[in-house]
Design goal:
Number of domains: 1
Strand content: under 5%
Radius of gyration: 22 Å
Order of helices and strands: HHH
Structural class: mainly alpha
Low-confidence stretches: none
Length: 97
Amino acid sequence: MRRDWWKGVLTAVVMVGCLLAGTLDAWAQEEETSLGQKYKTALSLYDQGDYVGAKKLLLEVKETVRKQNLQLNPATQQEIDRRLVMIEEKLQAKATP
């Protein structure tokens, strides 16, 4: 029985690992949901003509993705970049009399 102590230690390590993996997975899903919500809100603001608010949220999404080294769907990344260009054009057009 004394020779089997390592089985208990191994079981404890596996259990802690599973707990950590579950916590990290839940955090990643929460972060993904938050980013998705910001993206949808930004598109909604754009459609309502609030270009400054939309730009702010889109830049937040891009910065979070960059900082956390996340992978975005390429189509979503292209849409964000396209919207940012369109926002800049609209803001410049408003600023020019």
